[in-house]
Amino acid sequence: MKGMGNMGGMMKQMQKMQKKMMQAQDELHEMTFEASAGGGMVTVTANGKKEITDVQIKEEVVDPDDIDMLQDLILAATNDVIKQIEDKTNDTMGQFTKGLNMPGMF
After folding, report:
1. What are the boundaries of the region Disordered (predicted)?
2. By the 8 A CB rule, do 77 and 36 touch?
Protein backbone atom coordinates (compact mmCIF):
# COMPACT_ATOMS: atom_id res chain seq x y z
CA MET A 1 0.00 0.00 0.00
CA LYS A 2 2.04 2.84 -1.32
CA GLY A 3 -0.53 5.54 -0.58
CA MET A 4 -0.47 4.90 3.18
CA GLY A 5 3.13 6.10 3.57
CA ASN A 6 2.21 9.34 1.86
CA MET A 7 -0.73 9.72 4.25
CA GLY A 8 1.59 9.28 7.23
CA GLY A 9 3.91 11.97 5.92
CA MET A 10 0.99 14.30 5.43
CA MET A 11 -0.19 13.65 9.00
CA LYS A 12 3.29 14.50 10.32
CA GLN A 13 3.27 17.73 8.32
CA MET A 14 -0.16 18.62 9.73
CA GLN A 15 1.01 17.93 13.29
CA LYS A 16 4.10 20.06 12.70
CA MET A 17 1.97 22.90 11.34
CA GLN A 18 -0.45 22.61 14.26
CA LYS A 19 2.43 22.84 16.72
CA LYS A 20 3.74 25.97 14.97
CA MET A 21 0.25 27.48 14.98
CA MET A 22 -0.14 26.89 18.71
CA GLN A 23 3.29 28.38 19.37
CA ALA A 24 2.44 31.46 17.27
CA GLN A 25 -0.87 31.85 19.09
CA ASP A 26 0.86 31.59 22.48
CA GLU A 27 3.33 34.28 21.40
CA LEU A 28 0.46 36.51 20.28
CA HIS A 29 -1.28 36.10 23.62
CA GLU A 30 1.87 37.26 25.41
CA MET A 31 2.22 40.41 23.30
CA THR A 32 1.26 43.85 24.59
CA PHE A 33 -0.60 46.37 22.46
CA GLU A 34 -1.14 50.05 23.20
CA ALA A 35 -3.26 52.76 21.63
CA SER A 36 -3.95 56.33 22.61
CA ALA A 37 -6.46 59.01 21.70
CA GLY A 38 -6.61 62.75 22.11
CA GLY A 39 -2.90 63.22 21.59
CA GLY A 40 -2.05 60.81 24.39
CA MET A 41 -4.72 62.02 26.81
CA VAL A 42 -6.13 58.48 27.05
CA THR A 43 -4.00 55.36 26.61
CA VAL A 44 -5.36 51.81 26.59
CA THR A 45 -3.13 48.75 26.91
CA ALA A 46 -4.22 45.19 26.09
CA ASN A 47 -2.71 41.76 25.66
CA GLY A 48 -3.03 39.51 22.62
CA LYS A 49 -6.05 37.81 24.16
CA LYS A 50 -7.94 41.11 23.72
CA GLU A 51 -7.98 41.67 27.47
CA ILE A 52 -7.63 45.32 28.50
CA THR A 53 -4.78 45.40 31.02
CA ASP A 54 -4.46 49.14 31.68
CA VAL A 55 -6.17 52.46 31.06
CA GLN A 56 -4.30 55.73 31.64
CA ILE A 57 -6.18 59.04 31.66
CA LYS A 58 -4.33 62.34 31.91
CA GLU A 59 -5.76 64.56 34.63
CA GLU A 60 -6.24 67.54 32.33
CA VAL A 61 -8.74 65.64 30.15
CA VAL A 62 -11.05 64.96 33.09
CA ASP A 63 -13.74 67.64 32.82
CA PRO A 64 -16.95 66.97 34.77
CA ASP A 65 -18.78 69.21 32.29
CA ASP A 66 -17.61 67.18 29.28
CA ILE A 67 -17.86 63.50 30.20
CA ASP A 68 -18.89 62.71 26.60
CA MET A 69 -15.45 63.72 25.28
CA LEU A 70 -13.68 61.50 27.82
CA GLN A 71 -15.94 58.57 26.93
CA ASP A 72 -15.25 59.12 23.22
CA LEU A 73 -11.49 59.15 23.83
CA ILE A 74 -11.68 55.92 25.82
CA LEU A 75 -13.79 54.27 23.12
CA ALA A 76 -11.44 55.43 20.35
CA ALA A 77 -8.33 54.15 22.14
CA THR A 78 -10.01 50.84 23.04
CA ASN A 79 -11.27 50.24 19.51
CA ASP A 80 -7.83 51.09 18.12
CA VAL A 81 -6.00 48.66 20.41
CA ILE A 82 -8.48 45.86 19.57
CA LYS A 83 -7.97 46.53 15.83
CA GLN A 84 -4.18 46.33 16.30
CA ILE A 85 -4.57 42.93 17.98
CA GLU A 86 -6.90 41.65 15.25
CA ASP A 87 -4.56 42.87 12.49
CA LYS A 88 -1.53 41.25 14.13
CA THR A 89 -3.46 38.03 14.72
CA ASN A 90 -4.61 37.91 11.09
CA ASP A 91 -1.07 38.60 9.84
CA THR A 92 0.50 36.00 12.12
CA MET A 93 -2.06 33.23 11.84
CA GLY A 94 -2.82 33.93 8.17
CA GLN A 95 0.56 32.48 7.20
CA PHE A 96 -0.77 29.06 8.20
CA THR A 97 -3.94 29.26 6.13
CA LYS A 98 -2.54 30.81 2.94
CA GLY A 99 -3.85 28.92 -0.03
CA LEU A 100 -6.37 26.99 2.06
CA ASN A 101 -10.04 27.76 1.72
CA MET A 102 -10.99 27.74 5.40
CA PRO A 103 -13.55 30.49 6.04
CA GLY A 104 -13.97 31.51 9.65
CA MET A 105 -10.77 29.78 10.76
CA PHE A 106 -9.53 32.83 12.67
Report:
1. 1-25
2. yes
Q: CA 100, CA 13: separation in Å to the nearest integer?
A: 15
The answer to whether position 1 is within a domain reads no
Under 8 Å between Cβ of 47 and 64:
no
**Segments of 4-80 assigned E as strands:** 32-37, 42-47, 52-57
Q: Which CATH number is 39's domain given?
A: 3.30.1310.10
Q: How far is CA 101 from the centre of its chain?
A: 22
Task: Report pLDDT digits (tens) over 10-37.
Answer: 888 888 888 999 999 999 999 999 999 9
Specify the 3-state DSSP secondary structure of 64.
coil
